[in-house]
Structures are given as C-alpha cells and as structure tokens.
Amino acid sequence: MLILTLACSTGGSKRPGPASPPRTRPEATAYRETSRYADVRNFLDSLRALGLPLTFGSIGRSTEGREIPYVIASRPAVATPADAKRLQRPIVYVQGNIHGGEVEGKDALLALVRDLAIAARPNVLDSVILIAVPLYNADGNERFGPQSRNRTDQNGPELVGVRANAQSFDLNRDYVKADAPETRASLAMFNTWDPDVFVDLHTTNGSYHGYALTYSPSLNPAAVFGGLYARDSLLPLLRERMRTRRSLEVFDYGNFLSDERAVPETTATEGWATYDARPRFGTNYYGLRGRIAMLAEAYSHDPLDRRIAATYAFVSEILSLVGERGGSIRSLSERAAAQPLAWGRSPDSLQMVPVRSELVLTPVLVDVIREVVESTGDSSVTEPGMKRGLRRTGRFTRVRMPVFDRFTSTLDRIPPAAYVVPPGDTAIVRLLRTHGIRVDRSDSAWSARGEAFTIDSVITSPRVFQGRRETRVQGKWDRALQSFPSGSFIVSTAQPLGTLIVYLLEPESEDGFVTWNFFGPRLKKGEKFPVRKLLDMSRRGRSRPRRSSTVVNSTPPRNE
Ligand SMILES: [Zn+2]
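^ thats the input. predicted complex w/ zinc ion below
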C-alpha cells in the first residue's frame, strides 16, 4: 500500500487533540455551514489520529487534481479486497456529494463513520464493511457560492458548491460514458471491491411532500437481482423502521404529476411518479452489475440539520438491515455473478436482457403525504423554491393516488456467446475495461456463425448533452457466417458482468455506447453496425485469444 501525504490548501493547524473526536463543520457552526474539501480532509486526519479500525485512501483524482478520499470502517479493520473476502461480510459503498450543492450526505456520512468507529459497544461495523466516499464531487463542492444561485430551491446552508464537476459534467449522468475522471475512479472502486450494496446520497427539490427523505432502488428492468430485492424486500422494511425507530416518514422518490409532467401518456391528473430507468444514473447502473443500489434524496425544503439527521438515520438503518441479511445479500451477489457464466455453458440457461424500457402505466393506488400550500394574497416569495404568492402551511394530508414507481422492458435481447469488436475500435475496448469487463484479443482471422446488425435509421440529437450528441439507431440482426479479422476484440458474455455487456453493446439499447455516440459518423442507414455477435465460442477457430488485463486506463484506488 502506498503511503500518501495529501496536501490541503488550508487548515491543518486547528485539529483537535488525539483524544477528542472531531466535529463536522455543520456541528461546529450550529448547522449554518457545510464542509469544504479541507474540512473533510482534516476531519478524516483527526479520525486517523484516534487510531480507530479505519482504513483511509483515495479513489483517484478529480478533474482539478484533488484526491477523492475514502474511508473503510469495519471491525476488524479491512485494508484490501482480500481482507474483505476473508471476513465474508457484505460490503456497503456509500457515496456523498455527487452533486456539489447537495451537501448533507457528505456531512452525515462523516458523522456516521465517526460515531460507529468510536463506539465501544458492538454495532454494524461488526457485521458489514462500510466504504464511505463522503466527497465524491470534490471540485463541485469547492465552487462555493450563495445557495440562492447554486441551489435555488434549497433551505440552506447559505454557501454551497455546484452540481457539476469541473468539466461541467453531471456525474450522475456519466456512469455509462465515463467521461469524467471521477466516474472512472468510481468504476475502479466498484471493480476492485465489488460492493454488494451501493448507496448514493442526494438532496431533492421539487414537490412539497411530507417525507424527510425519498429513495429509489435500481429502476432498470435488467436489474433483476438487486433491483427487485431492494424494491420489494429491503426498502419497504427500511420505510417501516424509519417510521417506528426514527419517527421519520420516508417514501419512494417522485414528484406529483401536477408539478412535473413526467408521465405524458397517462390521463391521471393526480399521481406520484418516479424518474428514469437508464444507467447513466449511478444507482440504475449499479443494478446492471447485478448488485443492490439505493438512491437517497433528503428533502431540500427541510433545514440542514433535519436533512443531515434524516440521511444519517437512513444510512444507519441500511447498514443495520444489510448486516442482518448479510448471508442472503452475499448469496444474491454470488447468484448474479454466476448467472452469465452459465450462459456460456448451457444455451438453456440464457436469459433475455432488457435493453429498452418504459414506465409502467398501470400504477398502484397508495396514500401519499402532501403538504398543503396556500395563497399569500400577494406576489411575495416566502421561501427559496416556493412560487411567488404561495406559502407552506406545515399542514399535511394523505391523498390516495396512482404511484408510478417501476419500469418494464420494451425490447429484450438474447445474449450471444460474445460480441466481437473490430481491431481498430480501441476506445470501445478501453471503455469496456473501465467498466471492469474482460476483453480478449484474437491473434488470427477466423470465420464462424454469427450475426450482423444492419442499420435502418440513425437519429443523432442536434443538441449536445453532457458533451455528446445522443444517438439512436434502429435496424435488424441477421444470422450468417461472419469473417473476423485478426486482432478482433472478443467480449464473452460468460463473465459476471454479462448483463451489463449486453446492455452497453446492443445498438438499440436506450443507454448504451451507441446512445453516447461512441461510434460517430460510421453509423449510417444501410451500413452494418461495427460490433457483431458470435453465437458459439467453440467455433472460434484454432487460435486462442490472448487474455488481457481487466483495468488498463485508470489508476487503481489505493490506501494511504
Ligand atoms: Zn442530486
């Protein structure tokens, strides 16, 4: 392990003595301020000085070169994935501050790691391994400015960072294309530690509801393992425990239809609808890796102390529940990883992979808590985020309404034995490897039964979104003998991330490599899609593909 000395631009001299646990910036300022980067570093250094069973490290560097710290909390301490494996406990990866202005995840996570690590009594650190990344978007956090500019609908603190990273990318749209160094560092952590559970901490503005926090599982229909388990088993129980043990109401993430026309196809005038199933969003992405993911959204209309308390309580309850269910959760992870391996051995075990989806329009009716908002009788602004002439009342009503909280597949694909990428497409191969996908290279030409995709239509967005023009193709796969040149890259689907491979490489996927325009102007009507399918790996010819390393273009995360 590399020992790093990390320079902080400020602070360092005011650390508490080794015997006193550090306080977070909000705790030290009566919840008027949130932590800056140097505060987080100093806080972690103070924890380190206490000699607790914690491992400190960096997931990688931000765009502006800041080390993005992580801390691993577990009893006994865990420093390597091999240590973690020996303990046979579930690994929970919790990330704060992906959006720089959404600050309470960062501060709640620091406080929680401290409180768990200094506790003398047994707690969740005896049954789970917690990897905390409190300050994921370190550069966005440092762009401190008035909340009225950086986070218009938020109830404090006065100074907060910005949503995007230093490249102006929204990191929670970057999980497929991985254009940001932060995303590549995050993927390297996933590849190295393979956490069983990923929790992404946000703050939501939007509808005036009665919940201290809203949550979401992976919504993508291809998230058949962790997505459904989180939705149907973990989250309902977490909701119950938040109510009974913490006196906090929480609910599925969403907005009232009256506030956001999220469901244009429905005739319902009132309802509650979730957001999006695509894996550009981190928690949806993580479900495609066969694991459990949970999005947590504190309520931006609550003051900072309540948002921190709600996030702290929710993450605590997640850790407890995952600790209790450690055996089931680890076996779920193992089954998810083993399923694509069976694809390679027995065609009977093939399972269709959903690559496009839509919101289910036959919702369930559920009571949703709404805050009564009333007219002020003038055009005054009563608080950030509230429309002119309206004010909150603090009165809540339960309204039974349709809840749109899940997606269904509209296009499924059968996994081939492998996808074959042309020898020149090294950017595609690099990106696959960044996702932790194994790619082999053939050292001779061969012919085999396969499929090629003929493009019938290409639509490329005139607008640049997140640095790229989104693209959609339609067409048809046709079976025929295929000739593959020497140097072709072979991506077998018989590996733990088989589902993700299909989702990323299928040309008609709603959020794959085509979507983010990685193939550029080569996609033309009437032409063949460059990536082809190989239906039978045993007909690959006599040449044996060379195996290459999994991760090549990102610095592996390291402990300090
Ligand atoms: Zn957010």
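The longest strand covers residues 390-404.
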